[in-house]
Amino acid sequence: MLFADLALARRLEAAETSISVEVVAAYQQIRPRLGATSEPIAGTTAIFTGVDSPLTQVFGLGLYEPVTDAHLDRLETFFFSRQAGVNIELCPLADPGLALKLAERNYRVIEFSNVLVRELRPLDAEMPPPTEVTVHQLVPEKVDQWALTVAKSFVPDSSPSAEIIDLFQAVFHMRTSTCFLAEIEGKPVGGGMLCIHDGIGGLAATSTLEGYRNRGVQSALISARIAEAAGEGCEMAMVTTGPGTTSQRNVERFGFRVVYTRTKFFRPFVTV
Asked: Is residue 244 part of a domain?
């Protein structure tokens, strides 16, 4: 049984950071003018993939060493020099003094998210597929279709921005990612991705088009990625969801459990 201690938190947050660093590398390959970059700070890595990108943030701060004012100065300079605000996904096992330092610098709490984990066994590689929903590993010819399907799922009431579509196109080019497309009767209805780092299979971007919800699409995507992660020899799978959401309920049905809740601290961009 996995114990939610500092060692596990460091491993999970390192996996998140590694995935983000790979997205930076993918952007540098296919969208070099974006200026995606990263910088090691206080044992972890700050990530920039665009001013409004959900990946422009930092994971794991305060898990590896005490965070000093000099560290925070560097972190703020990294983001502010690119006209981006600072988003810090703070793990509750981080340096206890860090939250106070952030409050003193006028950071505010804007979000909570649950990190869930499931141990994997070899038999999970044989998890049976559902009947109505077909899940395929993505091929290059369908990258644009997959990116648009996933993007539309996250913004059902409006057209997805070019930046969001670009993000999902970029993740296909990550070295350790595998993307999955869900179809019903040959029509794309959802998608998701699996990223592997240090024996951890990270499930992300799970999405279903609005008109196809409650038909088992998320369950099919979760099942396919658990099987893939187990087949690749992963020890555990992880996923991040909003607290109390349908997504959390769906993964808990597959045996995931909450190991901790992150708090997102934010400081708006200021001129440096």
From this structure: no
